[in-house]
């Protein structure tokens, strides 16, 4: 059931209890976790934090902890499956689920006792009504038997006529039931067909903090980073992002009114958050401007920097803005102040001239101390790179802890190492995109585009992780749409496969919806993958919380693909 | 012969061990001082009767003996009181069960006093902390927080805390637990204190 009063129905319930926190592996979840941890520290609520990367780990963690804990808080996992069916908990276990995955499973919505959803009821849900899906079977049978026993006492003369009437009514009832079931199936199919995402979990938990008036600037910053993660990894529509930014902007102005006061302004070491209408160049303040332009998806695709023409256009563009190459290629912080002063406006003007609209995007920046300035997207990329780092001897949980640490202000070293990893990852992505486009590795299979990264591809290890592969997928599709002349191909979704585990012989397959300005980011590949796997008997593992990411045995690749093509044609 | 010498020696004995150690109870010395006081008092009684009868030249010696008595009393009470203060400090250092060698140095009354003090302290600690009681002998200075965030560095299996609940300590899981429960695990290297 949906929780309406988050303070009374969630926080006060767990206030004197011990809680198990099961957190999924994405940046939004990490941010929500940080905010919740800070609240728990404030009120001395004992908890145990367990990172989970997939359904199997969730099941294991639950089994290990179910004896000791009664209350479980799940962050960014658990809403889109029948949780009670999957975990088989005792009757006194209670689950609080704060998850962005939609659609929310109908059993979770209508269960009144054990499942509490920390989701707003109007959060783009369109849940079918109770009567359309559930029906009390017992009433039906009682009616039938009741009528029959009545008829038994009638005199035999009239019995035949009454029997006919009763038989007709029964046939009518059975027909009505079959109709209802068919309609139910259709409704459920429509409801569960597309996978998409709702409001950021970090924002939900921040709202809880705000209702308790225990919100701090650090929590606000984490909420912003959670929201930005959804935007960077293309989980929400642009409209929703802008609306949520406006919500956050209200909180930011509430927290920053002290900055304006000249006499009593805060020390420079305090955290200041400001609303920025900043450039869409990834990590540009921690890199050189040139590198950032070459490795940001947006500019790279619009200039087509994998072609020679594109490179020339870039040089023209820089010259047009009056930025000397020497300046642009050095670290951003060392650029001349005179250039840095009006940089954003200058770039916007020039970009409009070159047909690159929306080079600026609404976002937030944080500053603490003289040296430390970060944009929200910088933190998202750094934390994502740390979370999915492929160093040897580092388990998933090690990476989770590192990424979680990097979000704290006191762990700047971690954050800076994350930024370095993010730069390497972005360069790898751009190079892979360039090589895929130039060697025509993207094939049109009819209803979708397909690309397979072979084992020897450079940096292919990076792409064995779901978030990195999804990012590559998104950039690749964008680049493809800009480079191809085939109008039909521009509207197709993309399926991408890359080797995941060489020893076990598996690959990871990801599907993303087509690229368009007004895309609603709804992804049907989850169901499609399931059906294709079923029909061919391929050995797949649907372990990830996003249903559009699966693991598949390399040998079954071809038949899986064929089934998918047939299914979607 | 000098009066009050024995008493001063008692005091000096304690002063020699200025680090708070408790020497053996000097029963002999105390008895000698008390005997001296008794003999001084008896002599004074006799002289006072004489003085009342009219011999005023005894008054200075009465005064002298009286001031010796007061001095002895002061030294003895200082001795006994200082020992009690040291015994009280032992409760905070060693806990409620004293090691045998220390107990050997205490006289019977001091042992009695110690157990009374223990009872007083225990009932006080039970009354604070919102009805649950709070063990204030844990930290000498008020701790920054009662609970600390710890991260598990290696698998330790199950771990039981005060109210009987069990926590599973698995590698890389994080927990928010009462400080005193974690101290010895932190010392062992199983848990790591996380400062955020």
Automatic annotation (TrEMBL), chain A:
Belongs to the CDC45 family. PANTHER family: CDC45-RELATED PROTEIN (PTHR10507), CELL DIVISION CONTROL PROTEIN 45 HOMOLOG (PTHR10507:SF0). Its main location: nucleus. GO terms for biological process: DNA replication initiation; double-strand break repair via break-induced replication; mitotic DNA replication preinitiation complex assembly. Residues 136-153 have a biased composition (Acidic residues). Keywords: Cell cycle, DNA replication, Nucleus. It is found in: Nucleus. The lineage of its organism: Eukaryota, Metazoa, Chordata, Craniata, Vertebrata. Residues 136-165 are annotated as: Disordered. GO terms for molecular function: chromatin binding; DNA replication origin binding; single-stranded DNA binding. It comes from the Eukaryota. InterPro entries: CDC45. GO terms for cellular component: DNA replication preinitiation complex. This is CDC45 cell division cycle 45 homolog (S. cerevisiae).
Automatic annotation (TrEMBL), chain B:
Keywords: Chromosome, DNA replication, Nucleus. It is found in: Chromosome; Nucleus. Its main location: nucleus. GO terms for cellular component: GINS complex. Residues 144-195 form the DNA replication complex GINS protein PSF1 C-terminal domain. The keyword Nucleus applies. InterPro entries: GINS_A, GINS_bundle-like_dom_sf, GINS_Psf1, PSF1_C. GO terms for biological process: DNA strand elongation involved in mitotic DNA replication. It holds the Pfam family PSF1_C. Gene3D superfamilies: 1.20.58.1030. Residues 48-128 form the GINS subunit domain. It comes from the Eukaryota. Belongs to the GINS1/PSF1 family. Component of the GINS complex. Required for correct functioning of the GINS complex, a complex that plays an essential role in the initiation of DNA replication, and progression of DNA replication forks. GINS complex is a core component of CDC45-MCM-GINS (CMG) helicase, the molecular machine that unwinds template DNA during replication, and around which the replisome is built. This is DNA replication complex GINS protein PSF1. It comes from Oryzias sinensis.
């Amino acid at each position: 059931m949906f929780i309406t009063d988050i303070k009374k129905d969630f926080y006060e319930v767990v206030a004197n209890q011990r809680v198990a926190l099961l957190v999924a592996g994405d940046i939004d979840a990490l941010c929500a976790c940080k905010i919740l941890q800070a609240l728990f520290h404030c009120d001395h609520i004992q908890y145990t934090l367990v990172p989970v990367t997939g359904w199997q780990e969730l099941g294991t963690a639950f089994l290990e902890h179910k004896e000791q804990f009664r209350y479980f808080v799940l962050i960014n996992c658990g809403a889109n499956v029948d949780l009670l069916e999957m975990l088989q908990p005792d009757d006194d276990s209670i689950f609080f689920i704060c998850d962005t995955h939609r659609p929310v499973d109908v059993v979770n919505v209508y269960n009144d006792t054990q499942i509490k959803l920390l989701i707003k009821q109007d959060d783009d849900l369109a849940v079918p009504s109770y009567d359309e899906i559930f029906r009390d079977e017992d009433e039906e049978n009682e009616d039938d038997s009741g009528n029959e026993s009545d008829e038994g006492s009638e005199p035999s003369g009239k019995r035949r006529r009454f029997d006919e009437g009763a038989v007709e009514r029964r046939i009518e009832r059975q027909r009505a039931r079959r109709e209802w079931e068919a309609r139910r199936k259709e409704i459920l199919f429509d409801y569960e067909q597309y996978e998409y995402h709702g409001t950021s979990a970090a924002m939900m938990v921040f709202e809880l903090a705000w209702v308790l008036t225990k919100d701090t600037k650090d929590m606000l910053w984490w909420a912003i980073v959670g929201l930005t993660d959804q935007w960077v990894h293309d989980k929400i529509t642009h409209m929703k992002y802008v609306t949520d930014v406006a919500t956050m902007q209200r909180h930011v102005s509430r927290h920053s009114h002290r900055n304006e006061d000249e006499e009593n302004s805060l020390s420079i070491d305090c955290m200041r958050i400001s609303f920025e209408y900043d450039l869409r160049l990834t990590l540009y303040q921690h890199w050189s401007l040139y590198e950032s332009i070459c490795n940001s998806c947006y500019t790279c695709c619009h200039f087509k920097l994998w072609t020679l023409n594109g490179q020339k256009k870039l040089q023209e563009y820089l010259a047009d803005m009056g930025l000397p190459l020497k300046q642009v290629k050095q670290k951003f912080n060392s650029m001349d102040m005179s250039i840095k002063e009006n940089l954003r406006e200058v770039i916007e003007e020039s970009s409009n001239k070159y047909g690159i609209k929306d080079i600026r995007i609404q976002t937030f920046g944080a500053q603490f101390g003289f040296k430390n300035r970060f944009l929200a997207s910088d933190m998202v990329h750094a934390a994502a790179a740390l979370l999915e780092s492929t160093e040897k001897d580092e388990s998933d949980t090690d990476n989770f802890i590192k990424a979680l640490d990097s979000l704290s202000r006191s762990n700047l070293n971690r954050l800076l190492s994350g930024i370095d990893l993010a730069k390497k990852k972005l360069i790898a992505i751009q190079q892979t995109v360039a090589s895929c486009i130039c060697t025509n590795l993207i094939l049109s299979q009819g209803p979708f585009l397909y690309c397979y990264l072979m084992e020897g591809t450079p940096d292919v290890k990076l792409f064995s992780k779901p978030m990195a592969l999804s990012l590559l997928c998104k950039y690749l599709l964008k680049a493809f749409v800009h480079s191809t002349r085939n109008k039909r191909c521009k509207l197709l979704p993309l399926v991408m496969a890359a080797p995941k585990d060489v020893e076990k012989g598996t690959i990871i397959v990801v599907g993303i919806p087509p690229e368009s300005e007004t895309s609603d980011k709804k992804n049907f590949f989850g169901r499609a993958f399931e059906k294709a796997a079923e029909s061919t008997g391929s050995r797949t593992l649907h372990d990830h919380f996003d249903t559009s990411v699966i693991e598949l045995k390399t040998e079954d690749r071809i038949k899986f693909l064929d089934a998918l093509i047939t299914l979607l044609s | 012969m000098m009066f009050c010498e024995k008493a001063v020696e008692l005091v000096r004995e304690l002063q020699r061990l200025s680090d708070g150690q408790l020497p053996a109870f000097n029963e002999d010395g105390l008895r000698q001082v008390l005997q001296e006081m008794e003999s001084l008092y008896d002599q004074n009684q006799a002289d006072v009767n004489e003085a009342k009868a009219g011999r005023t030249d005894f008054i200075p010696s009465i005064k002298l003996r009286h001031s010796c008595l007061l001095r002895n009393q002061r030294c003895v009470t200082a001795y006994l009181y200082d020992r009690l203060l040291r015994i009280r400090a032992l409760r905070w250092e060693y806990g409620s069960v004293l090691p045998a060698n220390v107990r050997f140095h205490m006289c019977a009354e001091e042992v009695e006093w110690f157990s009374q003090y223990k009872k007083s302290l225990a009932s006080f600690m039970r009354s604070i902390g919102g009805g649950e009681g709070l063990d204030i002998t844990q930290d000498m200075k008020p701790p920054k927080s009662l609970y600390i965030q710890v991260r598990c560095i290696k698998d330790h299996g199950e771990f039981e805390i005060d109210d009987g609940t069990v926590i599973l300590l698995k590698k890389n899981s994080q927990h928010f637990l009462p400080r005193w429960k974690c101290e010895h695990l932190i010392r062992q290297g199983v848990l790591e204190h996380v400062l955020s």
